[in-house]
Amino acid sequence: MKHLKNTWKLFVIDWKRIFKNPIAIFLVVALMIVPSLYAWFNIKALWDPYANTSQLPIAVYSEDKTQKFEDKSINIGDEVLKNLKKNHQLGWRFVDSKAQLDKGVKSGKYYAGIYLPKDFSKDLLSFTTGDIKKPQIVYSINEKINAIAPKITEKGATSLQSQISEEFIQTASSTLLKVFNNIGYDLDKNMVSIQKVKSAILTTNDNLGTIDNYTKQVVELHGKVPELKEKLAKANEFTKYLPDVDALGTKIVALNGKMPEINEQLGVILTLQEKIPEIQNAGQQLAMIDEDFASVEQTMTEGIQEAKEGLTIIQQVQQSLPDIQRLGDEANDLGTTTLQGAKKLQEALPSVTNSVKITLQSIQTFATDTSSIISTIQQAIDDNQLSDQEKQDIRDLINQSIAKIEQQRQAIKGLVDYLQQVQESTGSTELDAAIKNLQSADNLLGDLSQRMEHLNTLVQNGNVSAVDEYLGEISTVATNISNLVGQINVESITETLNQVITKLMTTITDAQGLLNKAQQIDFESLLNATNKTVSNAITILEKYQAEMPAIKQEVHDANTMLNGNMDKIVSAINEGASLYQNEFPLVKNKLGIAANFFQNDYAGIRNDLTNTLTTLNEKMPDVEAALNQANDLIQNDWPNIKKGIQKAATAIKKGEKEVDLGELVKLLKLDATKESEFLTQPVEVQENMIYPIANNGSASTPFYTALCLWVGAVLFSSVATTEVYLRDKDKKRYSKREQFFARMLTFIVMGLGQALIVTLGNYFALGVDVRAPFYSVLFALLIAITFMIMVYVLVALFGNIGKGIAIIILVLSISGGGGNYPIQVSGKFFQAINPYLPFTHAVNLLRESAGGIYWPNAWFAIVILVAVAVVFLVIGALLFPHFEERTKKIAELSRQSHLFH
């Protein structure tokens, strides 16, 4: 009993603290309402998602062509468009072309597109011809725009397909049955004629063997027609050439008369055969010229180019010659002036040397003075303290030292500038080592100046230990400066300067001598003569260069023609010689025989051939046409005719046994309209709704209400703490478990508030269709208690890790709880965890109150939720006293990152 009282006291203290703090009241109210907003917004958004499907744009275009059927014009595409204009279930957009439809779907202007091709009606009516071809509706969809819209538009396309199919079935069945009806009446009127046809079919079937023998003979004869036509064609082809043969005969007779003259002329080929080695040698020489011609042409081009460049240089020199001459005079004067200055500089070297020595000695003396300053400061800090007067004296002393350092640096810079100017004037680098040492000394002096300023700062701050330590560094820098200056050999620098100046004077003297020699040459006459010679050479070379391409092409063509065909030429000459020696006598003999034939026998043979071919050509088309028709009938139609006769005979024989023709006529004469309606819709569906729910928003309410309660628990655990604040004197008064249960009650009250707000808001604010509103509130309160206990225990035991576990459970619950979609359509993993998620049973319990309670299912969910709450309650009560300190340590480690609280 004591534990219950203590728990209740702590619980009351929690709410007293809340009501005393306006901010706490605001947060509590907000955390009760905010989760409900999550549920309400989603429920309202899904209230009736299919009410506005008429706003979903779907492009429609029909290219269907009108077809004729039983003297009627049929265009199914136009009928479809008329029906769609009356249909407002989807946002039909009637476009003007297939390209406009495709572009709109691709760009996202339309969610989908439906296209009826131009052969739609034709294919739909193909069943009447026996060559059945199913018509197609081309359905294009842009699935990346939205996840649900493709399913809605697909349903529209399916409905359109069903509508067309239904209309087609009704039309086709009605037409077919009407035809059957007419057939029934016609059969009744023509029964005598039908009996005669039956007898003829049976007789023909009995004589099919004899007919087959006749067809084989006709086919064999037809097979020989191409051979006959080919021979006749060859004969006719020959007659076309009779005039040519006449002309040829005349030429053969004339040629035979000139054979003696031809024999004499062909004898020249034997002489040509003897000249073959000379022809081959000429070809080799021509190939060598062709191969080297590009080099000759390139050499000439380069020569002309170089000559032009040289001429340009000569002309430029001619233009600049007065300036060059004037420059030579000026250079001579400058050399004289420079030579005089170098002599004066050489004479002043002793005084420069003395100045350098004084500067370096001054620097070394300053380094010694620095050691004196250090000693003075050291004495002042021996008593480990500095008076204001000592600080002032040291400041003045350091400032004086810094001023001297600046003077020494200016002297060094002046000396470095002087040495660099000497080097620039003489083009020498022999003074680089001395310049580098002086620059290093300057850098050390700069470092010493900065250190003296820092030393002054330390002194004025009174940091005696730091001053004492820093004096050693300053002493080291001063020593380095003194050592570096001591390494500079002034005598060596002076000697180097003297050598550099002497070399400069020698160079200037030599340059003046060469310049005087150059001034004695008559450059103007020399350049004029050279300009004229080069210009004449360029003119001559360019003249020959212009002819080079033509010469090159001629040489190349000759080389290609001769050497490219050398083997053929030699072979032809040899073959010609062999032909003349061996074959020509035979040709001469045969030509005499042919000439005799044309002179004596050809005229009679030609007349007989022409008369015979004329008669054959006149009769062949009639023979061929008759055989073609007979063969076509035998090959293409006779098998079907034969098969049809056999089937007809078989059917007649079978029909006489099984079918009463009178009953058949009676069946065909039935009412076509009633039969067509039955074929169109043979079955009617009666819909029986067991647990009706008014709209999609009401159907989604159980899922989003349960989700809201879990989100509310996680959200409150993220803001509120599970630790009860107690003063030191009260910590021993209340046990860990009492604190645990007291704060749990506070969390549960928050959960109950969230459950009341969301369920009452669903019913009264949104107007959600709930069959059992009272039980809906009770079930939500139970779910809120269970969820809040689960989240509270996780956070109390594991801190931020517990919050993470609660979020993981939330994620798994959304996917595996079967809230919006049947769990059977989810993956195997989610189907496996579905029974073990409290969220699953929470949603199922709320669904019972929404659509009508089936108590066996409701009690099962209630038992599961109560059991989960009890299990978490027991685990938390047992483990909390042992886990609290560990949880605090984990929280402290996370706070050290300055990212988590």
From TrEMBL:
It comes from the Bacteria. InterPro entries: ABC2_TM, Phage_infect_YhgE_C, Phage_infect_YhgE_N, T7SS_ABC-Transporter. Pfam families: ABC2_membrane_3. The chain crosses the membrane at residues 21-41, 703-726, 747-766, 772-798, 805-823, 858-880. Residues 26-183, 617-878 form the ABC-2 type transporter transmembrane domain. GO terms for cellular component: membrane. The keyword DNA damage does not apply. This is YhgE/Pip domain-containing protein. It is a multi-pass membrane protein. Keywords: Membrane, Transmembrane, Transmembrane helix. Its main location: membrane. GO terms for molecular function: ABC-type transporter activity.
